[in-house]
Amino acid sequence: MQQIFQKPITYYILLGSLLAFLTINVNPELGAPFGIMLLVDFIIFQLSPIRINQNQFPNTPKSFLSALVAFGIFFVLSLILTFIFQPTAIVQGTIDIAKPESLVQVTMRHGFAATGLEQATAGQAEPIFAGSKIATYITFVFVVAYIETRFIIMLMVALANLFGVSIRRFTTTLLLIYVFIAGGFVWFHANVKGVEDTVSLIMTFIFAIITFELARRHQEMESGTHLHFINNLVFIWNRIGF
Fold first, then answer.
1. 53 backbone dihedrals φ, ψ, rounded to 5°
2. pLDDT 10s per residue in the chain (242 long)?
3. Ramachandran angles phi, psi of 220, nearest 5°
4. Which of 117, 92, 102, 103 is nearest to 198 (CA)?
5. How many CB atoms lie within 10 A of CB 85?
6. Of 109, 107, 87, 69, which is closest to residue 213 (Cα–Cα)?
7. How far apart are CA 229 and CA 213, in angstroms?
8. What distances in angstroms separate CA 169 from CA 150, 151, 176, one per listed residue?
9. pTM (2 decimals)?
């Protein structure tokens, strides 16, 4: 079983099938952007001489622990960002001045906004499982997180290969690649997912940089994927519960 799930083609078949099901039954707008991401990911994987594994089962506990630590760092940075931008958030109406919230609560709001879930469900038609919490978690905590993580890491691999940059050590050139892709990731959240909140978009940028560093340090995508799972689970659970 472990050998089966270590074969990359299994990931594409599983994710593609789940994406098709969720597009039909949960949100019709999922298919186009995430289908393109999955296709580009597959093409890069086939053509690039650089290989980053999805996971290695013996390394899973270490990868999950790294993801937990990374999320802790990310959340602390998010608290700092929220504290700095709180006046802006009040002006934008994110914070109800008549009902002041704690710094953690406001940060949770920004984190939820960054997932794009609120915008994805606003004004949509109601497919059969659109209101299902289980379907929502499968969609945004598993499938969307998985596809996005693989996609941005494979883009990093493609650009590193294009410019002859090693992804085994941190360099200024590699940092520029990080920044370029993270900027594109922010653009995607703002223009495709409809995220408008300033703090949420900055959080998205930082999140992408941390994901790249996890991939570089471990030379695999598992810890970055776990980070995305944990991130979306925490922020979505805080808003909609189980």
1. -70, 155
2. 333 334 567 888 889 999 999 888 888 888 899 999 999 998 888 887 777 777 654 577 888 999 999 999 999 999 999 988 876 655 555 555 555 567 888 899 899 989 888 766 554 555 555 667 888 899 899 999 999 999 999 999 999 999 999 998 999 999 999 999 999 999 999 998 889 888 999 999 999 999 999 999 988 889 999 999 999 999 999 988 87
3. -160, 165
4. 92
5. 18
6. 69
7. 17
8. 20, 21, 14
9. 0.87
Q: Which residue has the tokens 């959340």?
A: 75
N- to C-terminal Cα separation, the chain:
30
Contact predicate 195/114, CB 8 Å: yes
Token couple for 6: 């270590």
DSSP the chain: -HHHHTSHHHHHHHHHHHHHHHHHHT-TTSHHHHHHHHHHHHHHHHH-S---BS--GGGHHHHHHHHHHHHHHHHHHHHHHHHHHHHHHHHHTSS-TTS---HHHHHHHHHHHHHTHHHHHTT----TTTT-HHHHHIIIIIIHHHHHHHHHHHHHHHHHHHTT--SSS--HHHHHHHHHHHHHHHHHHHHTS----HHHHHHHHHHHHHHHHHHHHHTBSHHHHHHHHHHHHHHHHHHH--
The pair of structure tokens assigned to 33 is 């952007």
* Token output for 55: 């996971």
Q: How far is CA 120 from CA 20, 76, 115, 158, 231, in A?
A: 16, 27, 9, 29, 18
